[in-house]
Amino acid sequence: RRRVRVSARIGLQGTKELSDSKIEKRTIQKGLLLEFHKDSERSLLAVVERPDGKKNWVVTDQNGILSSIKPQQVTYVVPGTMDFDCSRIAEFLEKAQDLLDPTILECAWMELSEKDKSVTVEEFADIVYGSKESLESYCAHFLLSRDIVYFVKVESRGSSIYQPRPSAQVDELLRRKLAKEAADKELEEFVHLLKSAKALPLGSKPPKNSWLMEEKVKQKIESLQAYAVDVCNDEQRRMAGNILKAMGFARTSSAALKLLINVGYFPVHVNLDLFRYDVQTTYTEKVLSVAEELLVDCPDSDKHVRKDLSNLRVYAIDVDEADELDDALSATRLPDGRIKVWIHVADPTCFLQPRSILDREAMHRGTSIFLPTATFPMFPERLAMNAMSLQQGTDCRSVSVSVILHPDGSIAEYSIENSVIKPTYMLTYEGATELLYMNLEEEKDLRILQEAASIRAQWRRSQGSIDTAMIEPRIKVANPDDPEPNINLYVEDQTNPAMQLVSEMMILCGEAVAAFGSDNNIPLPYRGHPQSNTAVSAFAYLPEGPARSVANISVLRAAEMDFRKPVAHGVLGIPGYVQFTSPIRRYVDLLAHYQVKAFLRGESPPYSAGDLEGMTFIASMHVKVARKLHSNSLRYWLLEYLRRQPKGRKYRALLLKFIKDRMATLLLVDVGIQVTTVVAAGKVGDEASVVVEMVHPRDDILSVTEIAQDTEE
């Protein structure tokens, strides 16, 4: 019937035949009913009350609200509505609902497009409703102005004309409209899922994998995740924005994170850096398969040349939660009184071939990642923590670097050989320190190691070494997915005797390997550090410890690397240095093992200096990410630890440096975290007392205030 009506009335003049009288512009005046844009998303009907200044008008809208509008906000003046009563707007809208049938648009478009006719709003009303009265005209305007498929609005001499779109364009717009309706329905269903999950108690939230089973749901939840960590593409940003808007949240990354936590997709203490830096926390099936094959069958190609050192008393000293044990120590006193030490290093290269699948995987990881909540090893876990690691009381394949020291601590002789050892002790730093204090006769080898470390430290100081030891915090979180997980804080003092012992032996090993590479012309990743332009004695006035270390670090020059010959390491006070003692957890150490092991077999090194430089660069990029991950995660959990402490608790702080005026950097000694605040008095190296005023781990906010002396008293 509508099409018949349209056909019967299509003889009305079109745009090409409209006279000027058909397009007259209506003037706004008191009592008119009009439609105006309230904001970007709403249009309202209103009655004009009076002028407001030279251009604006005061109107009463359909909600009874009085407001001032600009002429640009007016979208349509309803004809025939002089002296309209604003109380009748609701009745007017109710009547309009009966006429607002969108299918009218398609019928009118079919007829008008055939005859290439363009129409005004009133003409459209006459065509489809048979009347140009105010109600019908408004309904025609309403349909046309909100139509995005059949008609396009064009301006002609100040009045609006609607032109039928071409058929091809209508088909495309219909396709898009249907697609949008389908997407809107999907969004509505997804929002319902979110709201349902959000309303559930904590222990009943749907598991994370349930959000990843259906592709459409997976796309939306991953868009929210990408938005939360600020690594989203344009489509993910659009989708996440729509979801947040539908949920009534602000379009911010923090709102997305809060939503994901509230629905149980993320734990409360989720580490966003794992997603932000796209950290690989798992291995492919191919890599795992190769690792399992090696665990089943891995013959030792160096077995015939391994020296049996299983009779030595071997000490493996590390942090108590260490999973990958890759170095251990032995020592003895020679008949001439000199000390001989062995640094035994795990031998993962007996499982690997350069450029193999496992080797490439390790290179692209660069290092094992150690976080308070988890460890992500450089090699598959069973291989790294079992077969490759040193095990107490078990014959273990290793590479042993032996060094005989001069009485002054310098190297007299050294050798590197494949070996078999049987670790006697697996000690924590605390356990080793306790053994040293007990001074047991049967542990004389440990005391010899301590003596060797002492004379080595003295010798390095005589060579200009710089003290950079700091108080280092360690945190282990036992159940990180819980809202209130257990946090265990350990503050390591680098002056701990066992830590100093191990550190000196690792430096000694690095110096010996560098000498070995130099003497035998082996390309290796040699590390160096130029001497500072500031003399070591410049900070002698500062107390030993963190304050002096911070001052020393502040004047250090950039580190250097060479892959053909050693370069002096001014910070350590040694002529050359190669990291060698952690081949299971550091790829550059593994490269050094490949090169040294090939020489020991009488073969050419597998890598040239250029090869080493390229691979070290690749690995170093991933090492930087790992360090960032570690420092960010450690700081987050230190802040979370502080957040849980009783309000008003006093903390002992050490003044490390001044930034400007009395603004200073302090070290909370009992926590191991640095913070900036204003101090009333004191100098670098002095102690102070502070209280925590505010702490927000997620926003990395820590604010402390110094407690005045009289307050403490």
From TrEMBL:
This is RNB domain-containing protein. GO terms for cellular component: P-body. It comes from the Eukaryota. Residues 306-602 form the RNB domain. PANTHER family: RIBONUCLEASE, RIBONUCLEASE II, CHLOROPLASTIC_MITOCHONDRIAL. It comes from Aegilops tauschii subsp. strangulata (Goatgrass). GO terms for biological process: mRNA catabolic process. Pfam families: CSD_RNase_II, HTH_RNase_II, RNB, WHD_RNase_II. One of its GO terms (molecular function) is 3'-5'-RNA exonuclease activity.
